[in-house]
Write a structure and sequence with these properties.
Length: 104
Amino acid sequence: MSPLTCTPQDAAALRRLLQHDNHENRDKMLDFMAKDPLYVPRLNVSLEFEREIALRRLEKLAHNGFISVFDFEKNPLNIFAGMSFDGLYLYQKFNAYGILNGCQ
């Protein structure tokens, strides 16, 4: 049995299929996060540190216009786009504490 090969075009098509909405925002968010050391995964850290870095990441995404509390009304699917990159934990903080009221 031969190994499965995947061209860059195949990978892009699969990604587009699995991430079925907000493609432009997802691409911009991914590029932004790839260039910022804040988004480098941290392993074996304390819960306090994990919470703090999650909040800083969320604030940075919101201040740069990738996500907004107004997405719940204007573009609900963008909420899921953000969750796929940042994890549900960030959105729980975003909603529970009502932070970043000035970010749109």
